[in-house]
Amino acid sequence: MNAPPQLVLGAADWLEFFFHYLSLSLLAVGGAIATIPDMHRFLVDNNAWLTEAQFNASIAIAQAAPGPNVLFIALLGWNVGLNAGGYLSGLWGIFLAMAGILIPSTLLTYNAAQWGQRNREMRTVRAFKQGMAPIVVGLIMSTSLILATASGHSLDHWPLWLVSAVTALICWRTKLHILWLLAAGALIGWFGWV
Amino acid sequence: MSSLPAPDRPRPQSITDLFVSFTVLALQGFGGVLAVVQREFVEKKRWMTNEEFIEDWAVAQVMPGPNVINLALIIGGRYFGLKGALAALSGMLAAPLLIVLTLALVYAQFASRPEVAGALRGMGAVAAGLIGATAIKLAKGLKTSVLGWRWCTAFGLGSLLAIAALRVPLVYVIFGLGGLACALAYRKLQL
Fold this sequence. Notes:
With 194 residues, chain A is mainly alpha-helical.
């Protein structure tokens, strides 16, 4: 594993960094996860501002932590900043990355939602909602399946799949709090049973 | 995008209530916040119905940007306008950001332990199951669809197959299959 690079980033570099995230924001249809390949190209391949290991760790940590997965972008910015100096530039990296990825999409989504709210009786708006509903349910089920098989499709992973299936059943049929299920999953994994 | 709920329906009391609710929500969201939103806002707080949740999620998914962030903007904006949207957004991000940073700082010590990797794997499997249950619960909301159950099943299974099995890029599914479903719904609304 390579040591993290020692970077000297000028204002022009930070501006390029910010604009990269600005430009990705409106392309992130289906979530920020969809833009990962492009960020990898920009941060690791082209500019070498992050090592491969730093890039992958940023994504893994954000997925393990509570909260929206988009926080992996904050960690990418944090690590670029750390490579370029210290904690202060790390915070600066977080700010630029998050502002860049969020501002354009937030403006668009907020205004579109408000427009839809005002025109909710319009036939096109009603058709959009009615038409998208079954697609949305299918997509959410896909997310579940993709996450359940994230470790691989080999049959050796059946205990993990069993945990997922039993969780789905419990969450569907009972009111048990989600945190109990997560704690149980963590324990099962901690002792190496899955 | 659903209508404002009737006055007797539960709703967030204030911008602070929104901020706190979204913070609580985000902190439970290991491996994704989606399942928690349905449980907290539909089943516990009753701010919205399953049908309304599907509608909001459709908009959140079609719009660019992180889905759960979009959802926060939509829900927060419905009750308190731009201030509400920003309160929901910062509730969703502030506390989790601190946690993620802390985790990143101690990552080196944690990463080498197999127990920790195992625990993360176990929690990932649970998170996948939670999202699956959300899909099952939301499927019940399709009963009232103008498309009818046959078309709903076809479009639902179609998108499931396209994404999970064939790994078609999401954009094609949303604009292709989704566009088809919307066109059909548009026609049926006329009749």
